[in-house]
Specification:
This protein has 455 residues and is α+β, with helices and mostly antiparallel strands. 20% of the residues lie in helices and 35% in strands. The protein contains 8 helices and 25 strands. Strands 11, 12, 13, 14, 15 and 19 form a 6-stranded mixed β-sheet that branches. The protein has a 6-stranded antiparallel β-sheet with strand order 20-21-23-24-25-22, covered by helices on one side. A 5-stranded mixed β-sheet has the order 2-3-9-4-5, with helices on one face.
């Protein structure tokens, strides 16, 4: 029987201001208490929508030199250090408010974030949380990285790091507790190799970088404004990143992680596979049928992603075309950004090159409402057809109800399509769709469709 832990949040707010490592933007960050079962949420207070992005692996949008989360048109990058600090202290529910797209880098480690959490204090909550338990070995490889997870009663990380040439190879292993987190890992600073700097500058990845918040390795020399904090500071920082990225499973993790030359893409890939393993038994039994007449017992666990396939989200256009039979000019989905149980979020980039703009209308181009309806149907089809039992089938549009078109959609808009599957009985399913542009609803409907074999 798996152990159940107590949820925790912060006792009061704590704030810090600085610059973002990659963006170079000035930013103020506040850590806030949160209600039970809410998880960790990033809130962009600089946006009119005050968009909130849950710290869940299905919201990962990019992993180039840092981990970026997105939801709709809102994003927040370089989340791993803040997430690692919250996880290291066992904080399961918190809001991270930002007035820019990236947390402050501070000194390149998680030390400042630990200070904030200690300043705020940690408060136990009555609700319990069940850890995510690795039950059998899992391996994920990506561009020379090998990262694996093995069953273990605690949370242990064993890591080897080096550059491509094998320089500065370091090894460290730690059983993570709040004490070892703060004493052995949290103060390890980010680093890069001198020959990487030109690439990073050209790609706008270190606009806020300096020797005050990063270590630079040039040949055999280590450039830093202070002595090394640990003998194995490089590999310990890699472990810090692993902790932050794997926290995106949404609950305390129980397993032994073994990593060789880790990176954010592989860390997040392993997080997805861990969730796939944990959810596989429930996914196999899952049906889109609604609950019976007996009310379901209210769960006291934080909501966690439902993962039904090896590849969850995001899905690009090539992956979408492996699921849907639609092709140009009638494919109305460019990207799937989120799949979470019976819900899915996708995007359609509306450009002036759309063929229907030639006649709808000359001099006043507007996306036809019926095509927004078609986009909803296609996204609902993706959600349903990704289920193993429906592979190879086609979703046929049958009916639409409660259709409302509220605002015009024009060239340059990004149409966000949110679908919730309401019920499915036999071959017939019904879903609710809402299309938004920049957070404002432009259309909505309830759609019914049927599944049939592709003959």
């Amino acid at each position: 029987m798996r152990a159940v832990l107590q949820q925790q949040t912060l006792a009061k707010p704590a704030s810090f201001s600085g610059v973002g490592l990659h963006s170079g933007n000035k930013v103020s960050m506040t850590l806030l208490p949160a209600l039970p079962n809410s998880g960790i949420i990033f809130r962009r207070v600089d946006l009119d929508s005050r968009a909130e992005i849950p710290a869940q692996v299905e919201n990962v949008a990019a992993t180039d030199r840092s981990t970026t989360l997105s939801r709709g048109n809102a994003k927040v990058q370089t989340v791993e250090h803040v997430l690692a600090a919250l996880y290291g202290f066992g904080v399961t529910n918190a809001v991270v408010e930002l007035d820019s797209s990236e947390p402050p880098v501070a000194d390149g480690s998680a030390r400042q974030f630990c200070k904030m959490i200690r300043e705020a204090g940690i408060e136990a909550q009555a609700e319990r949380v069940e850890p995510v338990q690795v039950t059998e070995p899992i391996e994920y490889t990506h561009n020379g990285t090998v990262i694996s997870a093995f069953p273990h009663e605690g949370f242990k990380i064993t890591c080897t790091s080096s550059d491509k040439g094998g320089r500065f190879t370091q090894f460290f292993s730690v059983e993570l507790t709040p004490e070892t987190w703060e004493g052995e890992i949290a103060q390890a600073r980010t680093f890069c190799f001198y020959e990487e700097i030109e690439y990073l500058i050209k790609n706008g990845l270190i606009r806020g970088g300096s020797l005050e918040n990063a270590i630079v390795i040039r040949d055999d020399a280590v450039l830093t404004t202070e002595p090394m904090r640990y003998r194995e500071e490089f590999v310990r920082h890699k472990i810090l990143d692993i902790i932050g990225d794997l926290s995106l499973v949404g609950a305390p993790l129980r397993g032994h992680i073994v990593a060789v030359k880790p990176g954010h893409a592989a860390n997040c890939g392993l997080a997805r596979r861990i969730l796939l393993q944990v959810r596989r038994p429930s996914v196999a039994a899952q049906s889109f049928s609604p609950p019976g007449d007996t009310p379901a017992r209210q769960s006291t666990q934080p909501k966690q992603p439902q993962v039904s396939e090896e590849t969850t989200a995001p899905l690009d256009s090539e992956q979408i075309m492996q699921i849907l039979p639609h092709r140009y000019p009638f494919l109305m989905v460019d990207r799937v950004t989120r799949i979470d149980g019976n819900q899915i979020t996708a995007e359609k980039n509306v450009t002036i090159n759309e063929p229907y703009f030639q006649g709808h209308f000359p001099g006043h181009p507007i996306m036809p409402g019926v095509l927004q309806l078609e986009a909803m149907a296609q996204v609902a089809g993706i959600l349903t057809l990704k289920q193993a039992d429906n592979a190879g089938k086609i979703a046929y549009f049958m009916a639409a109800e409660k259709v409302k078109w509220r605002k015009p959609v024009k060239p340059g808009d990004v149409l966000q399509i949110d679908i919730e599957l309401l019920r499915a009985r036999g071959k017939v399913a019904k879903a609710k769709g809402v299309c938004t542009v920049r957070g404002e609803v432009v259309s909505e409907a309830e759609i019914t469709f049927t599944l049939a074999g592709n003959s």
